[in-house]
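Thread title: Can someone regenerate the structure for this chain?

I was given the following input by a collaborator and told the matching structure tokens would be attached. They weren't. Posting the sequence so someone can regenerate them.
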Amino acid sequence: MQQILVVEDESVIRTALRRLLERSNYEVSEAGSVQQAEAEFNFEDFDLIISDLRLPGAPGTDLIKKAGDVPVLIMTSYASLRSAVDSMRMGAVDYIAKPFDHADMISAVERIIADHPTARAEREKESQRRASNAAGITGIIGNCPAMLTLFEHIERFAPTESTVLVLGETGTGKELVARSVHQRSSRAEKTLISVNCAAIPDTLIESELFGYEKGAFTGANTSRMGLIEAADGGTLFLDEIGELPMEAQARLLRFIQEGEIRRIGSVHSRKVNVRLICATHRNLQQLSAEGQFRQDLYYRINVLRLSLPPLRERGKDILHLAESMVQSQVQKLGRPAMQLAPKAIQAITTYQWPGNVRELEHAIERAVVLSSGTEIDNESLGIDLELVNINRIRGQEGIAATPAPRTRSTSEPQEDLSLEDYFQRFVLEHQDSMSETELAQKLGVSRKCLWERRQRFGIPRSKAGNTPRRRKTAAQS
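Best answer:
Regenerated them for you:
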């Protein structure tokens, strides 16, 4: 629905024009002056501005420069050739005299909007196009700018034969991205072989990838095809490629350069046609600079790059993902419909999720199993809101916060304290200068919770903090 802003100081005319435009399926906003319009609205949000020429304060023609690319239609009861020419000369797209015919006004509006696509309309088209692309990426939920960019890049990269490198923290869904690239490529009907390089021992990784001939080593009683050869005609996904041993990296480099492999123990090479997709959570450029990853291999696999944002940077996507996971788990377990309680929503949207989507998925699964009612609370999710609040305060004070609320050894450096360690340190450092109420407010907990944690951690009230109370009692006695 197109957006139109009507700027007219006569309320009767303004209301009549709004009703006329709304009957023609336009969405209309109103203002009584240029100053009000500028204060209350962002002109880029509109497809057309209709303004009276003579207004209290600044004239309607002032909107022409302020509106930028948004077309401005000027109307006035002073229907003279001079005012029409002056308005058009200043940049108005058209001019209409009052009283105007309803059909003429609607015709002018339709023509102007059709001839002048605005930034808002272009943004809507782009958003619709991206949403359409995202709908085709099965298994991945997301509508934040970073995810929409990812979907667009998948659309562009998938039809090519180039090597793709997927970057992202652990648990962000790199394998789902690799599957999406494969499913939208010309190899979709062929095999997708997934290999987790970190899960195979260094001594076996080469034989797993390249295969071996009978008698190549002790225990090689028969010849065996490697995973690269098994993916011939299809796609090979190498997850956690940063964990690949240097010896295997040299063999992999030859496969990428020459399109051929040689089984262990064989003297003959075999041609293979495999599209390669790699993924890692590590910084390969830094590893190559440190000599832990071959630079030439890094340059070979870093052709087309897809970056997955961590869950904590995906805004409202977190809640959409959680709600979708709740419905999926409810159906899987045959449970009645469930929803997230307000505290659960607060916990989900404020927790940092160091384990990303995988951690969220496991938390939702656990919560659905543990919840007996129709609502899921933060306790079922295993998220302590009070510790999350303390974590947020730590970040505000410039102290490095650990993403997960787990206790760490006291021998670790102070800037990597656990939340419990931080609680103890904060109380000990500030209890002489703050009351219990102030301490609790600063930590984002209740006084009762503060007292309970003092008992649990064995933190006594300081004598200095008790002195004023004893003096008061003595004076009363």
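The CA atoms of residues 80 and 154 lie 57 Å apart.
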